[in-house]
Amino acid sequence: MLLSDRDLHAEVDAGRVVLEPWDAAMVQPSSIDVRLDRYFRLFDNHKYAVIDPAQEQPELTRLVEVEQGEAFVLHPGEFVLASTYEAVTVPHDLACRVEGKSSYGRLGLVTHSTAGFVDPGFSGHITLELSNVATLPIKLWPGMKIGQLCFFRLTSPAQHPYGSTRYGSRYQGQRGPTASRSHLNFQVADLSGGSPADGA
Ligand SMILES: Nc1ccn([C@H]2C[C@H](O)[C@@H](COP(=O)(O)OP(=O)(O)OP(=O)(O)O)O2)c(=O)n1
């Protein structure tokens, strides 16, 4: 079930859903708008020949802070990490999706490249994977509404919510745009069990 504005206000008032800082004016009919923070992570492509999810690549991205009153210019085809201004806490019986805003989608701004899911139990800033699919640069103004969070009620509370030791929870408590931690607990399955040619 997708939570309505009425349910969202009740969850926030009960202290179960937490957005910090909280602004009740951000509540939409069945979502809560979130704003863009002023920190960005740029890719330093010249530092590595290839992105390898199995390896720690600490110099792959670099943090940039935009000055007060200035915009960050995202060029066509460019991909950067950004962050919500709000830190979000999701209770154990809700999950959340990060969605874009139609007005910016119409300009060619993509808010997340593939990861739109926020687990029950997650707490922290949400890292945005921003890209520009338009053919002109787009100005990103810190503080602008950049996306919206939709909350769903689970059929039962998660037995092992995000942040419990059961799962990796590599981004619990993250602050600001956070680079990939894919190298932690990186696993590949043993694929030696058969091939499509076996059945031919
Ligand atoms: N655009 C997004 C989407 C999600 N998250 C946060 C909230 C999620 O609960 C957490 C983990 O997301 P995934 O489970 O999709 O990522 P992984 O499986 O790679 O990480 P983990 O091993 O920590 O679960 O990252 C985020 O900051 N920004």
Gyration radius, rounded: 19 Å
Oligomeric state of shown chains: single chain
Give a list of the ligands. 2'-deoxycytidine-5'-triphosphate
Q: Strand-residue fraction?
A: 25-35%
Form type: globular
Distance between the ends: 45 Å
Number of helices: 2
The order of strands across the largest sheet is 2-3-13-8-10
List low-confidence stretches.
none
User: Which range best describes the helical content: under 10%, 10-25%, 25-40%, 40-55%, 55-70% or over 70%?
Assistant: under 10%
Mean pLDDT: 95
Strand-pairing-aware structural class:
mainly beta
Q: What is the N-to-C order of secondary-structure elements (H for helix, E for strand)? A: HEEEEEEEEHEEEEE
**Quick one: how many beta strands?**
13
> What's the story with the biggest beta sheet?
5 strands, antiparallel
Overview of this structure, please?
The protein is built from two helices and 13 strands. The chain is mainly beta. Strands 2-3-13-8-10 form a five-stranded antiparallel β-sheet, covered by helices on one side. A four-stranded antiparallel β-sheet has the order 1-7-11-9, with no helix packed on it. Strands 4-5 form a two-stranded antiparallel ribbon. The relative contact order is 0.22. The model has no long low-confidence stretch (mean pLDDT 95). 2'-deoxycytidine-5'-triphosphate is lined by residues 98, 112, 115-119, 122, 126-127, 162, 167-171.
Write the layout of secondary structure elements.
Blueprint: H1 5-13, E1 18-20, E2 27-28, E3 31-35, E4 39-43, E5 61-65, E6 72-74, E7 79-89, E8 94-99, H2 102-105, E9 109-110, E10 117-118, E11 123-132, E12 138-140, E13 145-153
Antiparallel strand pairs: 1-7, 2-3, 3-13, 4-5, 6-12, 7-11, 8-10, 8-13, 9-11
